[in-house]
Amino acid sequence: MFVTCETKTSDNVFVTVNVSLQYMAVREKIYSAFYTLADPLQQMRSYVFDVLRAALCQMTLDQSFESKEEISHSIKSHLEEVMHGYGYTILNAVVTDLSPDGRVREAMNEINASKRLKEVAEQRAEGEKVIKVKRAQAESESMYLSGCGVARQRKAIMDGLKETITEFGDRVKDTTTKEIMDMIVLNQYFDTLQEIGHNPVTKTVFLPSDNDKLRTSVMTADAAKI
C-alpha cells in the first residue's frame, strides 16, 4: 500500500511524503482482521499521517532528509503496536520520497549555487593571494641578493683601489696618494672614452664642469641661430 501525506516541517516548509507500507493479516487473528475494522487500509493511512506529522513538525527540512530511515522505523513500530490488536502485522514501512514545494526546491538550488560560487570565489582569491605573496617574497629576495651583489662589487672595487694605491706607492717612491688617485681617475676617463667610441649607437654630450663656460656656450649657440 502507498500512502501520500502533505505536512509541514519545523521551519515552515510544506513537504509531500510518500510511504510504502507492506502488511498482512495474522492467521491466528483472521476474524479480527476482517470484522473488527470497517476500513483497515484507511485506518493504517490515518496512523501513518499521525506519525509523519508528529515527527516532521519537530524537524527542519534538512533534518527530515537526513532522518528518512528513522521516520520509517517509527512508522513501522507504531503501526505494529496498534494494528496487531486488529489482526494485522506490519512487514515493512519505507519512506520512498520526501519532496518539498517546487518553489522551495528552486530556492534551495539557488542557495547551493550561491554557496558554491562563494567557495569558488574564496578559493580563487586565496590562490591570487598566495601568488602575490610568493611574487613579493621572490622580488624581496631578488632585491636583497642584488643589494648584496652591489655591496660586494663596491667592496671589491675599493679593495682593488686600495691594493693598487699601496702597490704603486711601494714601487714608485715620492708619490702621494692624491697623485695616484688622479692618475687612476684619468685612466678610467680614457677607458670610458674608448668604450663610447667603440659603441656606434651611443649618444653622449660632453659638458664643461665650469658653469660660466657652460652658460657662455649656450648663449653663443643661441646667437649663432639668430
What's this model, at a glance?
The protein has 226 residues and is of the alpha+beta class.
Per CATH, the architecture of the largest domain is 2-Layer Sandwich
By DSSP, the count of extended strands is: 3
Radius of gyration using CA atoms only: 49 Å
**Shape, principal axes of CA atoms:** rod-shaped
Terminal CA distance: 115 Å
Describe the strand arrangement of the main beta sheet, using strand numbers: 1-2-3
| pLDDT averaged over residues | 82
Number of helices: 7
Structural features, described:
Helix 2 packs across helix 4. The model has no long low-confidence stretch (mean pLDDT about 80). The chain has seven helices and three strands. Strands 1-2-3 form a three-stranded antiparallel beta sheet. The protein has about 230 residues and is an alpha+beta fold. It folds into two domains: about 100 residues, Tetrahydropterin Synthase, Chain A; about 80 residues. The longest helix has about 70 residues.
